[in-house]
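Trying the structure run again after the queue cleared.
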Amino acid sequence: MRRIKKGDQVIVIAGKDKGKRGSVLSVLAGDKLVIEGINLVRKHQRPNPMRGVEGGIVDKAMPIHTSNVALFNSATSKADRVGFRLLADGRKVRFYKSTNELIDA
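Done. C-alpha cells:
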C-alpha cells in the first residue's frame, strides 16, 4: 500500500513549486507522481492533422518525486505525515499522524 494514491490532495514541500497544492493524476513506478498544475514545462508541439493535434507551445505536467510532496490534511489545512493501521476486520488503512484521523475509512 502506498502513502499517496491517485486522487489525493497533496502539497509540495520542496522544489520550485513549494507551497502549491494539487490533485494526484497518476502514480508512476519509481516513486514519482504526476500532479495537476505542478512541475509544468513548456513543450513545443508539432501539428499532426491525422490525430487532430494543433501545433504550438503547450504546458505539460512532468513527474515529481514523492519525497517532495506531503498529503494535505483539510482539517488542519497543513501538510501531514501518513501512517498505516490494521483495523479489527483485517483491513490496512492510512491515517494522519497529527490527528489520528483515518484517510480511507
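Residues 72 and 79 are 5 Å apart (CA to CA). Worth checking whether this holds up in the mutant runs.
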